[in-house]
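Thread: "does anyone have the structure for this chain?"

Original post by V.I.:
We have the sequence but no experimental structure in hand. Need at least a predicted one for the grant figures.
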Amino acid sequence: MQPEKLVVLTGPTAVGKTKLSIALAKRIGGEIISADSMQVYRGMDIGSAKIRPEEMESVRHHLIDVLDPSEPFDVVQFQALAKEAIRQIHSRGHIPILTGGTGFYIQAVAYDIDFTPNDADPSFRRSLEEQQDPEKLHEMLRKVDPEAAQAIHPNNIRRVIRALEFYEKTGSRISAHNQAEREKVSPYLLCYFVLNQDRKSVYDRIDQRVDQMLRDGLEEEVKRLKAQGLSPEMTSMKGLGYAEMLRYLSGEIPYEEAVRLIKRNTRHFAKRQITWFKREKDVTWINRQEYGGNDEKILEAMLQILREKGIL
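Reply from O.Q.:
Generated one for you, tokens below.
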């Protein structure tokens, strides 16, 4: 039996994945699964650059607006939800297109990463959770697993703690475990596209996107979330744009500094995304500059590759 089809369209933030994914879905009879750790949250629209209903052009989307911002969310939950969405999409005779920039989420689905429940000592986890300084936790990880520390941002406390738990439980580095998982063969008939652009253009697009978010009302969105009782410790409020704006609204930093940090941290995130995708195997890189930035030419090239792989 031929494996089920799966198309991945990813790349650094602000590179233009959303618009291209819509065009691709319309051409191949696809439905889109959002691989974004923030777009799962209802009411977090501006800072997550969430696609608006009128922009979907009747293409069905999954894993958008499925949780309240007060709820935690992680890769294990994402994998389960995405696999169920893939099953539903195939049942309708359509092709799932996994689109977004959260590389770990994409890898978890594309290669069916094993997330066996961790039965580490609960007291060890509690001792880590009681550590209020993310930098200290990250330094602990750097000492036992430098590669994991490089891949995980200090503010992603849940992943840092999971990596430390894994080491405590097994005596092995989670980076080595993840590398072994990365060598797995995908259970899908997979085509994995990474849309990219020269670094300066990506950074310019990031700055322009942040400026547009501010004009669209990012500050007001975070004010509303703060008024609902959301705090910096919650998963949702660690997202780019939200964390920095919350610091401003709490009086910790001035507005201009919040804007500077959003842009800087987003550029750093884009750089880490590219590093992640370069480690992935069987990836087809689509560089915008090679097509003059023309989405129609890019789309035709992608369709040809999908034909060659037997997906179309």
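V.I.: this helps a lot. The CA atoms of residues 51 and 113 lie 28 Å apart.
O.Q.: and The chain has a mean pLDDT of 91.
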